[in-house]
């Protein structure tokens, strides 16, 4: 069996937690921050965990990240 390839875009954007969940950066923070509320900016700090359906897609693209 040949090795499976990891999707390069996923390798750069996502990482796994010790319990196997997928960690990602918060969306919507690249530009246009002047029109965002202070609450949005505060809540969107750091990283977030993906929902189960999204995590399933990402895990299939990262076969060795478990």
UniProtKB/TrEMBL annotation:
Pfam families from the UniProt entry: Ribosomal_L35p
GO terms assigned for molecular function: structural constituent of ribosome
GO BP annotations, alphabetical order: translation
Presence of keyword RNA-binding: no
Annotated keywords: Ribonucleoprotein, Ribosomal protein
Keyword match Ribosomal protein: yes
One Gene Ontology term, aspect cellular component: cytosolic large ribosomal subunit
Transmembrane region(s): none
Cross-referenced HAMAP family: Ribosomal_bL35 (MF_00514)
Protein family (similarity comment): Belongs to the bacterial ribosomal protein bL35 family.
The protein's name in its UniProt record: Large ribosomal subunit protein bL35
Organism: Loktanella salsilacus
Name of encoding gene: rpmI
């Amino acid at each position: 069996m040949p090795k499976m390839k990891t999707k390069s875009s996923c390798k750069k954007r996502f990482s796994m937690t010790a319990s196997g969940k997928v960690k990602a950066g918060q969306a919507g923070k690249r530009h246009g921050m002047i029109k965002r509320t202070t609450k949005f900016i505060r809540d969107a700090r750091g990283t977030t965990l993906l929902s189960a359906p999204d995590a399933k897609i990402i895990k299939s693209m990262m076969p060795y990240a478990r």
